[in-house]
C-alpha cells in the first residue's frame, strides 16, 4: 500500500435535461483530496483552515515528506462527517478555489476510497504494512526487529514504508501489538494489517 495519490477523475459527467450532472463514483465517500498545500504546514494548521472554509470537517490526514520529515508532502486528505458535506465542500472549492496562507490556489477532488476486504479474507492475512519509516532504514534492520516476534519470511521496503511477511499469523498479531505507535531509528511508525490486492503491479511491489 503506497501513499500514491489516487484522485478520481473529476470530469465524469452525463447529460441530464440539457444540463450536465457531475457523478461521484461512491455515494459513501466522505473524503476529499486537497493538493497544492504549503509544505511547511502541519496537520493542525490544515485542520483549522479547512474547518474555517467548510462545514462538517472531522479530520485531516497528512504524511511527512520522504526527504524532510519536518515538512508535509504538499497534499492532505480531508474527512467529512457525511458524503453530503463532502459534496458541498468539493463543489464550493472547485467553483472558487481558495488560496490558503496566501499561497497558490488549492486543488480539490475526490479521494479514492480504499478497497474493502471482507473479514474472512483479512483473518488469514500474515503480512504487515509498516509506514512512516526513515528513508535510511534498511530491510535488514526491519527483519532483525520484527523477527523478535516470530519467523519473518521476507521484508520488502519502498521509500518510507515496508511490507513484513510472517510465516504465522499469531506472530504477526504479536508484532502489531508490540510495534504499532513505537519508534524505529527516530521515526514514529504505524503498523497494521496489509490488505490483499488484486492489482498485479502493487502485488509485485509487495514482494
From TrEMBL:
<feature type="domain" description="RRM">
    <location>
        <begin position="30"/>
        <end position="113"/>
    </location>
</feature>
<dbReference type="InterPro" id="IPR000504">
    <property type="entry name" value="RRM_dom"/>
</dbReference>
<dbReference type="InterPro" id="IPR035979">
    <property type="entry name" value="RBD_domain_sf"/>
</dbReference>
<protein>
    <submittedName>
        <fullName>APOBEC1 complementation factor-like</fullName>
    </submittedName>
</protein>
<feature type="region of interest" description="Disordered">
    <location>
        <begin position="12"/>
        <end position="33"/>
    </location>
</feature>
<keyword id="KW-0694">RNA-binding</keyword>
<dbReference type="Pfam" id="PF00076">
    <property type="entry name" value="RRM_1"/>
</dbReference>
<dbReference type="GO" id="GO:0003723">
    <property type="term" value="F:RNA binding"/>
</dbReference>
<dbReference type="InterPro" id="IPR012677">
    <property type="entry name" value="Nucleotide-bd_a/b_plait_sf"/>
</dbReference>
<feature type="domain" description="RRM">
    <location>
        <begin position="126"/>
        <end position="196"/>
    </location>
</feature>
Amino acid at each position: 500500500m503506497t501513499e500514491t495519490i489516487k484522485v478520481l477523475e473529476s470530469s465524469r459527467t452525463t447529460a441530464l435535461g440539457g444540463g450536465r450532472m457531475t457523478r461521484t463514483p461512491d455515494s459513501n465517500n466522505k473524503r476529499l483530496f486537497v493538493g497544492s498545500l504549503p509544505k511547511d504546514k502541519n496537520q493542525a494548521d490544515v485542520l483549522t483552515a479547512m474547518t474555517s472554509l467548510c462545514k462538517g470537517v472531522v479530520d485531516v490526514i497528512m504524511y511527512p515528506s520522504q526527504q524532510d520529515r519536518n515538512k508535509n508532502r504538499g497534499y492532505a486528505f480531508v474527512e467529512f462527517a457525511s458524503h453530503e458535506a463532502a459534496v458541498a465542500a468539493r463543489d464550493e472549492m472547485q467553483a472558487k478555489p481558495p488560496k490558503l496562507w496566501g499561497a497558490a490556489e488549492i486543488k480539490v477532488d475526490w479521494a479514492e476510497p480504499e478497497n474493502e476486504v471482507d473479514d474472512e479474507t483479512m483473518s488469514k492475512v500474515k503480512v504487515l504494512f509498516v509506514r512512516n519509516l526513515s528513508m535510511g532504514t534498511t530491510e535488514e534492520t526491519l527483519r532483525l526487529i520484527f523477527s523478535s516476534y516470530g519467523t519473518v519470511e521476507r521484508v520488502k521496503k519502498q521509500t518510507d514504508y515496508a511490507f513484513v511477511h510472517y510465516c504465522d499469523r499469531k506472530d504477526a498479531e504479536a508484532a502489531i501489538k508490540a510495534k504499532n505507535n513505537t519508534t524505529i531509528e527516530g521515526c514514529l511508525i504505524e503498523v497494521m494489517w496489509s490488505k490483499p490486492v488484486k492489482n498485479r503491479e502493487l502485488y509485485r511491489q509487495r514482494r
